[in-house]
Amino acid sequence: MDRYRTLAPGQRAQVWVGGPAVARPELVHETDQILVEAPNWSLDGEALYLNGHGSLWRVDLRAPDRGLTAVELQHLPEVNNDHVLDPDGEHVYLSAMDGHIYRGSLRGGRAERVSPDDGAWHFLHGVSPDGRRLAYVHLADLSDAGRLAILEPGRPPRHVDTGHGHLDGPEWSPDGEWIYVNTEHFTDLAGHAQLARLPVDGGPMERLVTSDTVDWFPHLSPDSASAAYISFPAGTRGHPADLDVEVRVVATADWSAPLRRYPVVGGQGTLNVNSWSPDSTRFAFVAYPGG
């Protein structure tokens, strides 16, 4: 995998906060020094965690300057934008650029690899509500279509048959009953990802919305009442950077009628992982204007 992304000359990374009742999102952090990606909201509600330049960073939402503070994790390769907090609120799981998943403390210290040494790439997206299992995208190589795998660290992973087409972004519902994904399963048009869910123990996928856009990374709020996802222009292949995209907010009772639409320049790094606040009122996302 290539090294971490960097900002283009004149480009900025902006961390915004929106939500179901937020018509105009709030800018909470901006930098022209580090390309930060993929916020996670801390379980105490006080901070955001993002990756940037191969490391994990904290933005303290209570601090006057809301600056970046590095989380010093040792024995950890450079990390990408697939990281999810442990439900214990004290640890984080991170996908690294060596293809493996690691676990470390949010206070820093030694990180430990938890993914099997099976020659595949492991891109983390979900941790079960009880903290015992991980949902990740399994790729035999980087040109392969993504497949769903469930891992209980220390045991062999379970591979779930989700039919044809690339699958990405697997994430547990807060009640632990469903896994939410984006998938090409519903179309023969290459790259046309749509949002879906499937029972956690396997079964037919349920399409959540039918659209002409390419839709990625569905993230449910902790109370399951709302969801956010990112919508790419029709014909987009994968989830590239620096496009005119739209971050959408829906009520989970009706995915077809967005409550909010936030147009941004972004894509890769904007909303790769769940970034909802613990009270379900807000979520964070990243824009990259000026590139």
Describe the 3D structure:
This protein is an all-beta fold and 291 residues long. It has a single domain (13-287), classed as 6 Propeller (Neuraminidase), CATH 2.120.10.30. Helix content is 0%, strand content 48%. The protein has strands at residues 13-19, 22-31, 36-41, 47-52, 55-60, 68-71, 73-74, 79-85, 91-96, 101-105, 109-110, 112-113, 121-127, 134-139, 147-151, 158-160, 167-172, 178-183, 194-199, 206-207, 214-220, 226-232, 243-251, 260-266, 283-287. Strands 3-4-5-6 form a four-stranded antiparallel sheet, with no helix packed on it. It has a four-stranded antiparallel sheet with strand order 8-9-10-12, with no helix packed on it. Strands 13-14-15-16 form a four-stranded antiparallel sheet, with no helix packed on it. The radius of gyration is 17 Å and the shape is globular. The mean pLDDT is 96.
